[in-house]
Every structure is written in C-alpha cells, then in structure tokens.
Specification:
This protein is mainly beta. It is about 0% helix and about 40% strand.
C-alpha cells in the first residue's frame, strides 16, 4: 500500500508502476484505490468526485458501486413501557446479511425472510438506539464486471471476457446493495418467532395495448395500475423513475424512439417493481432488416450458394419464429446496416438454437456455430460513430429453435438491436 494523497491533484492523474527487472513475481493484477470519495460514471471508466452523505438508496446509485463492506443505518426511539415485544423489521433492502445492534450491544443477524429480529430483551425504558448494518459481498469489488449478469457463483472463465478499451462506467455489472426504505421497530403482544407484519408492494404498472414498433406515426402509450389510488411516474431519458418524476395523467405521445421506464407509488406501500419497454418509431422506407429464407435438410450451417431461396422480405427484428414457414429444418440470412452514435466498445450477444454466425463490416464478431440448444455467445468490437453493415447466418437442424440478438455499448444497457438504428440502405 502506498499513500498517494499528497500527489493527487484536481483533474487527470496518471499512475505509473515500473518493475525492473520484470519477473513473474511482478505480474500485475487489479490495483485498488482507497479513500474518501465517490464515483461518477464516464464514457470511459469513472471519475472521482467528493463524497456525500448516504441516503436510503442503493450504494451503486450513490457513487459506491464497488463497495463491498457494510453501511450502518441508525435511529432512536423512546420506550414508555416494557409490557410488549419489540421487533426490528426490514421491508426493502438488499445485502448478504444485516447486523442489528441495540444500545451498542449485538442483537443478532437478519439473513432470510421475513427479515425481522426480536430485540425485546435488549430494549429498556427511555431512549433506545437501534442500528442495522447492511453488508454487501465481494462481487461488486472483484467482479466479474464484463461477463453479463453473473449471480450466485463465479469461475475462472467469468473473468476472461474483457473489453479491448476502457468501457463506460455504466457498462459494469453490479448488484444494488443497500437499504432502500427505513427499517421499522414494531410493537406486538404476540409470541416470539411470529411473522408480525407484512409490507405490501404497489402493483406493477401495465402498458395497455402494448406494441414496441410504430411505423411512420407517433406512438401513443397508455399506462394503468391495479393498485387503486397509486401514482404512475415515468422517464424517457434512461433514468429510473422516482416520486418526483413525471406523473402519468394521459397517454404519452412519442414522435421519436425512447426507452420508457415506469414505476407506481402509493402511500404506506412499497413502490412497485420497475417496468421498462423500448418504444421505437421507425421509417418504413429506411429502417429494417432484409432477409432470405431457406428450407434445408442439412444438420449444420448450409452452403447458401448451393440452395435456393424460398422467400425473402423485410423485418424490423431478427424474429425467426415469426418469419419461418415451417416448424424446423430451415435457415435464414439477415442483412442490415447498424447505426452507431457514440464511440466505444460494443458487445454483441447472439442466443441461438441451432447455429449462427454474425459479421460486422465483413468480420466475424460472434461465432455461435454448430448444432446445439439455446446458447448465447458474445463478441466485443471498438466502433466509431457511423454505419456498419451487419450480416447474420442462422440455421435450424431440427427440434426446438430460436434466435435472439442483443448489444450493449457506451451508455446503452444490454438490449435487442433498436429497430430505429437498423437501416436497409
């Protein structure tokens, strides 16, 4: 460990490590920077910013995405009598474990539903201090950060997928640890080990008459929630809705594509789960994917030059299920031009049953060939703003089949290729 505080300046700082002579004992693994700061996502990596007081929200959203230890949340309450039982209840949180202390004495751990702990024996008349410390895990600190959503376990191969260039901070995969709603101290006359209180969650909002693609016309988005009296809040800029986001009062009219994120709120209830849908307004004369459809008896990728095209057409998605003309033993060739707006690393994911080969600018970017069930493979390329020809070959040798194509990039969460970014010319 080295103290570099006296050398750090506002602006860009460069850290150089030299090993002379270089030996196997000098092989470099991750370098960790410790200090009192928070992080802000950048197009490339992160920026260190001054630390701020934490609130009831995930640590990731408050500039501590790599944090893996504990955060203590404390309050006090006054007790007039000891003729009742008292229980600490967690209603909305995420962590590996929560440690409860009462008047600076350890009361126990909360590790599973119903997320409560009896503290009757530790409270006394008068003021009582209650603290709950939520602990994360080493996942956020150690990764993997670039293998998709790895949960529950990690293995050597999880760390072998790394971008060629520094990715955006928003492209790192983290778990949202933290306390999202204040814990409660409940009074009860019931017996110990009883589920004393249930906290209800607001129903998820619904997209009424939903469709994702609108041709040559504005999209009118209607929302509803089955929790009576709930408010529906939404965003169109990629951020998650909060209680201060735009209130839904009438159908939303979109003249251009947007990622619509929606959440419902109601007093005395936990906010609803997040609902996200991509809404795409496309130009039917310019946007789309051209395809050629074949029927084959091959059990591997066919020689497309040796078989006849059965049909061809235009689509907005790589939906083989909707385009195929028989249940099995067929093949497709898809062609489109992908528009890239921001420079950076782009990872393409192709999930197929059976095999597929995906080319960008004539170069193989995702190899997922052979006969197999639904298997997702990926490839990363560094792209500058512009338009890139994309070609995909896909075949089914029999039985179940399917094809899904996704990408992610700077400021872009993993998602299906947006129809308004695909062009036929």
């Amino acid at each position: 460990m080295y103290d570099i505080g006296k050398y750090i300046k506002v602006g860009t700082n460069k850290i150089t490590l030299k090993a002379s002579p270089m030996t196997i004992h000098s092989e470099l693994e991750p370098i960790y920077l410790l200090g009192d700061f928070q992080l802000e996502s950048q197009t490339k990596g992160w920026k260190l910013v001054p630390s701020e007081k934490l609130v009831l929200e995930s640590w990731k959203k408050q500039g501590l995405p790599f944090y893996s230890d504990g955060v203590e949340y404390a309050t006090s309450f006054k007790l007039d009598t000891k003729d009742k039982r008292h229980i600490v209840k967690l209603t909305d949180w995420l962590g590996s474990v929560a440690q409860v202390k009462v008047n600076d004495k350890e009361a126990g751990l909360i590790i599973s539903a119903p997320y409560e702990l009896d503290i009757t024996d530790l409270v006394h008349k008068g003021e009582n201090k209650i603290s709950v410390t939520v602990y994360g895990t080493l996942k956020n600190l150690l990764g993997p950060h670039h293998m998709g959503s790895v949960r529950g376990s990690a293995w050597p191969n999880s760390f072998q997928t790394a971008p060629d260039h520094i990715p955006a901070g928003s492209d790192y995969d983290f778990i949202d640890y933290g306390l999202f709603r204040d814990f409660s101290v409940i009074e009860s006359t019931g017996p110990a080990q009883r589920v004393y209180w249930r906290d209800y969650k607001t129903a998820k909002p619904e997209f009424k008459n939903f469709q994702s693609i609108y041709e040559d016309s504005p999209a009118n988005i209607q929302l509803a929630c089955t929790s009576q009296g709930a408010e529906i809040r939404y965003t169109l800029d990629g951020s998650e809705p909060t209680k201060t986001s735009v209130l839904y009062t009438a159908p939303i009219t979109l003249k251009k594509s947007a990622i619509v994120k929606v959440r419902a709120f109601k007093d005395d209830m936990i906010e609803s789960d997040l609902v996200t849908n991509g809404i795409y307004v496309v130009n039917s004369a310019k946007n789309g994917i051209t395809y050629k459809y074949y029927e084959t008896v091959d059990e591997d990728m066919p020689d497309f030059n040796a078989i006849k095209v059965k049909s061809s057409g235009q689509s907005y998605t790589f939906d083989s299920q909707k385009l195929k003309q028989r249940r099995e033993k067929f093949a497709f060739q898809f062609d489109t031009i992908l528009q890239i707006d921001t420079e950076g690393d782009y990872t393409f994911f192709v999930n197929s049953n059976d095999g597929s080969m995906t080319y960008l600018n004539g170069k193989l970017v995702v190899e997922n060939g052979g006969r197999h069930g639904m298997v997702e493979r990926q490839g990363t390329v560094y792209l500058k703003p512009g338009k890139y020809p994309l070609h995909l070959d896909f075949f089914d040798a029999g039985g179940d089949n399917g094809l899904e194509v996704y990408y992610k990039g700077p400021g872009i969460e993993k998602q299906q290729l947006p129809p308004d970014k695909l062009f036929i010319e």
